[in-house]
């Protein structure tokens, strides 16, 4: 068995002050993927930078205080890589991956965008490049008898069941028609599987992000934008999954909740 968890920490230093370090100490996951770390390795608290029993990989952004992904693995990786051979995005702290004996695990922080702005144009450039990478990565994995799972904050809710207030968000970045169509291409054209939706086919949700504004968390007015998207061979080995939703608003250490899945490999 291998259990993989992914979470956008919304700043690892802030999350540590709110209880992320306790969560990491207690998790039964074998691999933990983080997004929006927003810190250089030397700025990360020592208790999270060098954690007994974990082998961490940090991929910070060249823009100080922004983005950043990380992967913690209990098994020392055979190999690790930062970026996906993108001239524009490889220093932006948005992608890293590690090779374990039979599985490659990646942490992704896809740009959030903002409709009708340059930020949205940047997001779409990322999406175009990353789709081609996903296709090539799946082919390489298959050629070497390996599986791949891309965990992280994809910043797109795929279907109406993936967002509570879908009617009022149809013009918002993260639920734009062409973004949703792009994610469909990840599944249908590139051949990946949305593992949580495979485990929970009906919906609504389970949501993984709730705005800090208003009473979104209390009313479960969430979005499902954090995914584990896997090659079919690994996806069919998923035996259980959960969203680790905090028991109450005050217990949250991020506006996202960990998405944790166990695979019988």
TrEMBL record:
Q: What are its GO biological-process terms? A: DNA repair
Site note Interaction with DNA substrate applies to 256
The EC number(s) attached to this protein equal: 3.1.11.2
In terms of Pfam families, this protein maps to: Exo_endo_phos
**Active-site residue numbers:** 109, 153, 256
Q: How is the cofactor bound?
A: Probably binds two magnesium or manganese ions per subunit.
Domain of life of the organism encoding this protein = Bacteria
Sorted keywords for this record are:
Hydrolase, Magnesium, Manganese, Metal-binding
**What GO molecular functions are on record for this protein?**
double-stranded DNA 3'-5' DNA exonuclease activity; metal ion binding
Residue stretches making up the Endonuclease/exonuclease/phosphatase domain: 6-256
Which residues are noted in the entry as Mg(2+)-binding?
Answer: 8, 36, 153, 155, 255-256
Q: Where is this site: Transition state stabilizer?
A: 155
Entry's SUPFAM superfamilies?
DNase I-like
- Which cofactor does this sequence's record say it needs? Mg(2+); Mn(2+)
Q: What positions are marked as the site Important for catalytic activity? A: 226
Q: Which InterPro entries match?
A: AP_endonuc_1, Endo/exonu/phosph_ase_sf, Endo/exonuclease/phosphatase, ExoIII-like
Top EC class, one word: hydrolase
Family statement drawn from the similarity comment of this UniProt entry: Belongs to the DNA repair enzymes AP/ExoA family.
Family annotation (PANTHER family): EXODEOXYRIBONUCLEASE III
List the protein's name. Exodeoxyribonuclease III
Q: What is the species listed in this Swiss-Prot or TrEMBL entry?
A: Actinocrinis puniceicyclus
């Amino acid at each position: 068995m291998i259990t993989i968890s992914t979470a956008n920490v919304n700043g690892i230093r802030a999350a540590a002050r709110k209880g992320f370090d306790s969560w990491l100490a207690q998790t039964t996951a074998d691999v933990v993927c983080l997004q929006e770390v927003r810190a250089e390795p030397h700025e990360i608290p020592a208790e999270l930078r060098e954690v007994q029993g974990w082998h961490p990989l940090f991929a910070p952004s060249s823009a100080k205080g922004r983005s950043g992904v990380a992967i913690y693995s209990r098994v020392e990786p055979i190999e690790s890589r930062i970026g996906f051979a993108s001239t524009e995005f490889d220093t932006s702290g948005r992608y890293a991956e590690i090779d374990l004996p039979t599985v490659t695990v990646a942490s992704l922080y896809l740009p959030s965008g903002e409709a009708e702005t340059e930020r949205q144009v940047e997001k779409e450039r990322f999406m175009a490049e990353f789709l081609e990478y996903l296709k090539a990565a799946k082919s390489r994995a298959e050629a070497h008898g390996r599986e791949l799972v891309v965990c992280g904050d994809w910043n797109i809710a795929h279907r109406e069941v993936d967002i509570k207030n879908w009617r009022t968000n149809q013009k918002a970045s993260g639920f734009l028609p062409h973004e949703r169509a792009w994610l469909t291409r990840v599944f249908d054209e590139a051949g990946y599987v949305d593992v949580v939706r495979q485990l929970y086919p009906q919906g609504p949700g389970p949501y993984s992000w709730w705005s800090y504004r208003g009473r979104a968390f209390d009313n479960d007015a969430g979005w499902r934008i954090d995914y584990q998207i896997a090659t079919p061979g690994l996806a069919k080995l998923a035996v259980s999954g959960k969203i680790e939703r905090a028991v109450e608003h005050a217990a949250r250490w991020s506006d996202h909740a960990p998405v944790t899945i166990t695979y019988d490999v």
